[in-house]
Amino acid sequence: MIQDSRPGDQMIRVEGDGRDFGVVKRRPLSFGRVSVHSEYTLSHLDHLEAEAIHIFREVVSELERPVLMFSGGKDSITMLRLAEKAFYPARVPFPVLQVDTGYDFPEVLATRDRWVERLGLNMIVASVEQAIADGVVIDDGKTTRNRHQIGTLLNALEVGGFTAAFGGGRRDEEKARAKERIYSHRDEFGQWDPKNQRPELWSLYNGRIHEGEHMRVFPLSNWTELDIWSYIGREQIDIPEIYFSHVRRVFERDGMLMTESEHNPCQPGEVAQDRRVRFRTVGDLTLTGCVESNAVTIDQIIAEVAVARVTERGATRGDDRFSEAAMEDRKKEGYF
Hints:
Strand order of the largest sheet: 7-6-5-8-10-9
CATH class of the largest domain: Alpha Beta
CATH architecture of the largest domain: 3-Layer(aba) Sandwich
Largest sheet: 6 strands, mixed
Number of strands: 14
CATH superfamily of the largest domain: HUPs
Number of helices: 10
């Protein structure tokens, strides 16, 4: 008779070499109150979360001075949430960096500040306006502030001595980002060579760099827009309210609905009117469009995104419309 039986015990008969060793108990391994079973599965979101957390920890253990590029948009907020989880209960062990064009949405900046305050982060703001004043970048009156972010960012990374910069780019956004590795090497000029990328077999990442070089690291590479929204809903993440449907004064330009403001006035032939819209992505106010929408909850946004056939950058970012290879050209120069 078997003594000390407990709920969950399994009775099995052990046999071998023609002999019968009798019936024994098989009990799940237990550590304190948590039982460890031999089989378990991760959901799709759990798998993506675990991969991103692994990437954060790898970079911090391998590269000396990382920084997280934080705009206050949905992707960078998701990335910061993952960094928070990766190092909890300790603080996030690196600063955050925003490249400020001077044309950012006020709602986005307010959300950025809430996150920085809640987590007690060291935030570095690299101002395009200040970079122009200091002669770091040259304003010819024709180039957009978005493109001026390149020189401003590279200068901030050099001044800070950063050897790695986390970015919120995803492969589903745009074809140049689709071809980029998770660990994306930048040379001493901050430039990217898409024809000279390092293999990443079996999730092994090569972070070796020479003096003056750095890595751009993309923990969200394998996520989609739908994954981002599903994760935001699951984690109840604080995001800017302009991602939800609201009434805004907009006008149509190049097939996009643009916000009317002092930085972005109507041109001849353009008429502003109040429309119910939301933003799928946020950036430079003068180049970022919105879409008509009645989605006021995350579930409604997920339903919209699930049937969308154009990525958020393709639908609402004017800076990606200058040419077929606009994003790749900027990335080669040092863009996010």
